[in-house]
Amino acid sequence: MSALRFAPPPGQACARRSCHSFRGYDNAGRATRGVVPRGWRDDSPLVVEVGADTTKRGKRSKKKKDTGPEQVTGVGKGDASTATLTKIDLGNGKFVELFVPVDVVDVQGAVTQATLDQFRDELYGAGDVVWPASVALARLIAHCPSLVKGKRVLELGTGLGLCGNAALKAGAVEVVMADVDTDTLALAKRSASANNPADPTIASTLKLDWTSVPDEFCVDTQQKFDVIIAADVLYDETSARCVADVLNKALKSGGMCLVSDPLQRPHRETFADALLKLGLECVDAEFPGHDGMRLLQVTRVEIGKGG
């Protein structure tokens, strides 16, 4: 039985939005039924109301880089020394500036596993690629700043730091961008200085290999984070389990993690099963405005409370 649940957050009605049926399971293993809204935040401008004119949304959907045929151009990992400051458009006047290597591979559309296998050395876990999943999550953060405003945020598998920098611009009080690649971390930090020149100290970087997390990582409650964000990090079963372990260590009580995962990735159930064993629950929802993505919300299960 899968631990992955398909349900709206508590207290959120979905009568005014497009919904679909789901079957899931509660913590006792009992089957449940309900509906899942198309987008779970009332303050999101990316959610379309039932009966609203969807012409603009339809036209906009055709432009989304996370859907449609895959497109991979370039030869692989870029040279950090060639990085130039590039504006990443997040829609409706929102943007993040990133230092992106000039010669990096460009990825658009729904990238298949076959392509990842073909370009394994160049693409597999590549941090200097602006992946469609990171654009989707950065866009959500930019348009729903309340997700991170006033909170301590960790971006896991940050790469060039698109989502972390989006959180920085959205008002997070602290942003830690973690990755195993020191070259991309250096670029992410440079980007943070460009996006928040008034106080670049709000953002910092952390070299972190999620397959070998230090024992001292987030052992102190004060080191844990209010919000953890990650995009396209569940690209194999090992990564799914390792990411779950990091979330368990780093997420504070009452905190939340958001993971943007391409629809075609097959490891969400592995991720959810690993989380449940650690006392964390994963809810899988449609991603507002991005039909080619899933939005995973992770929270800690509070045993013995309520009722």
Summarize the structure.
This protein is an alpha/beta fold and 307 residues long. 24% of the residues lie in helices and 28% in strands. It is built from 8 helices and 13 strands.
Description:
- A seven-stranded mixed β-sheet has the order 9-8-7-10-11-13-12, with helices on both faces. A two-stranded antiparallel ribbon has the order 1-2.
- Helix 4 (132-143) packs parallel to helix 5, helix 5 (162-169) runs parallel beside helix 6 (182-195) and helix 7 packs parallel to helix 8.
- The radius of gyration is 19 Å and the shape is globular.
- It has helices spanning 55-61, 113-118, 120-123, 132-143, 162-169, 182-195, 237-250, 268-277, and strands at residues 19-25, 31-37, 71-73, 84-91, 94-100, 106-108, 152-156, 174-179, 203-207, 225-231, 251-262, 280-286, 293-300.
- It is an alpha/beta fold and 307 residues long.
- The chain contains eight helices and 13 strands.
Can you give keywords for this protein?
24% helix, 307 residues, two-stranded antiparallel sheet, globular, 8 helices, single chain, 7-stranded mixed beta sheet, alpha/beta
